[in-house]
Amino acid sequence: MSIHILGICGTFMGGIALLARESGVKVSGSDENVYPPMSTMLESQGIKLDQGFKQEHLSELESELDAGEQSQVVVGNVMSRGKDVVEYVLNQNLPYTSGPQWLYENILKDRWVLAVSGTHGKTTTASILTWILEYAGLSPGFLIGGVPENFGVSARLSGDSPFFVVEADEYDTAFFDKRSKFVHYHPRTLVINNLEYDHADIFPDLNAIKTQFHHLIRVIPQNGLIVVNDEEENISDVLEQGCWTSLEAFSASADDGTDTASDKGWTAEYINTDGSEFKVFFDGQQQGVVNWSLLGKHNVSNALAAIAASRHAGVPAKFAIEALSEFKGIKRRMELRGEVNGVRVYDDFAHHPTAIETTLKGLRQHVSDKKIIAILEPRSNTMQLGVHKLTLAKSLEEADQVILFQPENVDWNMHDVIDALGDKASLHSNIDQLIKAFIPTIQAGDHILVMSNGGFGGIHDKLLQQLESLKN
C-alpha cells in the first residue's frame, strides 16, 4: 500500500506520514513549504518529498494503481478546489481521502482513543496525557500538534498498545468534508479544555463551533468518559444540547491561587501561586502534590484534565502525579530558547488573546516584579482578520513592555491596540528594526517572551545573537 500526501509538511499531515511509514505504508508527499525541520525529519524516515503541488508528483502512485496496488491520495485541508493537482485528482478519478479519515480507518478504529479538544491547551494537555500513560508503562501511540520533549517526535504508532492519544482539532477536515477533524476520531475518552471563538476564516460565529463540538459528543460511547472544564460556560451550553456519556469536571480555581479545593470533581489547591506546585483533589480527597516545571493556572488546568483522562485508562492518580514531576514540556510552549547575561528569551505558540493572557500571568507570578517584554506577531487566520483586536490589548496588560509586529497581510489598524496600551507599546513592520529599537534597553533579569504560531523570521536566534554581541 502507498499514499501520497498533499500538504505533507503541516504538523498534522507530517504526523500522519510518520504513522503511515511506521505501519509499513510507502509514503511520499508534496507541499509548497518543503524546508527544515519538518522536511529533514520526514526524509530521515525514508519519505520522498516534492516541492510544490504538481500533477507529475502523482505519476508513481498512478503506476502503482495501474499495477493493481492499493494506493490513494491523502488530501490536507490546505488544499482547495481550483488548485491544478486537486482538479487532476478529481478528473482522473484517483482514490483520495482526508487525513483524519485515513487516520481513523488505518490507525484508530480498533484502539482506545483519548482525544484532547478545546480552543487552547490541546498540545500541552495531549503531551502531558501521553507522558502519564508512558510513565505508567502503557506505551501509547500518539499524534500531537507539537513535539513533547519527553519523546522528541510529534507522532508514534506503538502498535502493541491499545491506547492512542490524539490532539483533536476543530478545524475543518478537507475541501470535500467540512466537518471538524475531531468527529472522525471516535474517542472513548474525551477532554474538552475550553471553548471560545476562533478560526474565523471557517466559522461564522461561536455557535457554529459549538455545533461541531456537539457532533463530537454525539459519537462518544456511553461507557466512555468526557472530562470538561467546569469554569467554561460555553462547554455547558454544548452539553445541554444532549450528552449520553459520564462526565468528570475539573477546575484550576482562582487566578491568585488562594481558593481551596471543592468537594466535586478534580480541583487544585495552590502551594506556589505560579502553578509550579499544587495539591490535587478528586471529590474533595487529596490525591497528591504536583511539583513540576510548568507555570500558570492554564497549565494547572491542563494537568488536572490529563490526570482525569489517564485515570479513565487505568492509571491511578498518584502515579499520574508522580509522572508530572518528570514532564519536560513541549517545544514552542514557553520554551526557553536561551539565556544571555541574565536575559531570558522564550518562545510561545500564542494564537488567541486568552492564551496570551494566561501565559503572561503565569510568567508574571513566576518572575514577580522582573521586567517582561512581550513581542507578538498576530499570525493566526483569526488574528489576521482582526477578530480579536478589541481584546488583544487587555491580554497584554501583564507585560511591562509590548512590541507588536505588523505582517504585510494584516490590514486592520493595529495602532488601536498600541493606543490602548499607552507608552509601553510600540508597533513595527520590520523585524531587524524591531530588534534594534529595544535591544539597547535590555538589562540582566529581563524576560523576553516571543509569541507567534509561525517562524517569525527567526527572531529568537536574532535576539540571542544581538544579546551575545552586547556581551562582547
UniProtKB/TrEMBL annotation:
<feature type="domain" description="Mur ligase central">
    <location>
        <begin position="116"/>
        <end position="309"/>
    </location>
</feature>
<keyword id="KW-0573">Peptidoglycan synthesis</keyword>
<dbReference type="GO" id="GO:0005524">
    <property type="term" value="F:ATP binding"/>
</dbReference>
<protein>
    <recommendedName>
        <fullName>UDP-N-acetylmuramate--L-alanyl-gamma-D-glutamyl-meso-2,6-diaminoheptandioate ligase</fullName>
        <ecNumber>6.3.2.45</ecNumber>
    </recommendedName>
</protein>
<dbReference type="Pfam" id="PF02875">
    <property type="entry name" value="Mur_ligase_C"/>
</dbReference>
<comment type="function">
    <text>Reutilizes the intact tripeptide L-alanyl-gamma-D-glutamyl-meso-diaminopimelate by linking it to UDP-N-acetylmuramate.</text>
</comment>
<dbReference type="Pfam" id="PF08245">
    <property type="entry name" value="Mur_ligase_M"/>
</dbReference>
<keyword id="KW-0460">Magnesium</keyword>
<dbReference type="InterPro" id="IPR036615">
    <property type="entry name" value="Mur_ligase_C_dom_sf"/>
</dbReference>
<keyword id="KW-0067">ATP-binding</keyword>
<keyword id="KW-0436">Ligase</keyword>
<comment type="similarity">
    <text>Belongs to the MurCDEF family. Mpl subfamily.</text>
</comment>
<dbReference type="InterPro" id="IPR036565">
    <property type="entry name" value="Mur-like_cat_sf"/>
</dbReference>
<dbReference type="GO" id="GO:0051301">
    <property type="term" value="P:cell division"/>
</dbReference>
<dbReference type="GO" id="GO:0008360">
    <property type="term" value="P:regulation of cell shape"/>
</dbReference>
<feature type="binding site">
    <location>
        <begin position="118"/>
        <end position="124"/>
    </location>
    <ligand>
        <name>ATP</name>
    </ligand>
</feature>
<dbReference type="InterPro" id="IPR004101">
    <property type="entry name" value="Mur_ligase_C"/>
</dbReference>
<dbReference type="GO" id="GO:0009252">
    <property type="term" value="P:peptidoglycan biosynthetic process"/>
</dbReference>
<dbReference type="GO" id="GO:0071555">
    <property type="term" value="P:cell wall organization"/>
</dbReference>
<keyword id="KW-0133">Cell shape</keyword>
<keyword id="KW-0131">Cell cycle</keyword>
<feature type="domain" description="Mur ligase C-terminal">
    <location>
        <begin position="332"/>
        <end position="454"/>
    </location>
</feature>
<dbReference type="Pfam" id="PF01225">
    <property type="entry name" value="Mur_ligase"/>
</dbReference>
<dbReference type="GO" id="GO:0106418">
    <property type="term" value="F:UDP-N-acetylmuramate-L-alanyl-gamma-D-glutamyl-meso-2,6-diaminoheptanedioate ligase activity"/>
</dbReference>
<dbReference type="InterPro" id="IPR000713">
    <property type="entry name" value="Mur_ligase_N"/>
</dbReference>
<feature type="domain" description="Mur ligase N-terminal catalytic">
    <location>
        <begin position="3"/>
        <end position="106"/>
    </location>
</feature>
<dbReference type="InterPro" id="IPR050061">
    <property type="entry name" value="MurCDEF_pg_biosynth"/>
</dbReference>
<keyword id="KW-0132">Cell division</keyword>
<keyword id="KW-0961">Cell wall biogenesis/degradation</keyword>
<dbReference type="GO" id="GO:0009254">
    <property type="term" value="P:peptidoglycan turnover"/>
</dbReference>
<dbReference type="InterPro" id="IPR013221">
    <property type="entry name" value="Mur_ligase_cen"/>
</dbReference>
<keyword id="KW-0547">Nucleotide-binding</keyword>
<comment type="pathway">
    <text>Cell wall biogenesis; peptidoglycan recycling.</text>
</comment>
<dbReference type="InterPro" id="IPR005757">
    <property type="entry name" value="Mpl"/>
</dbReference>
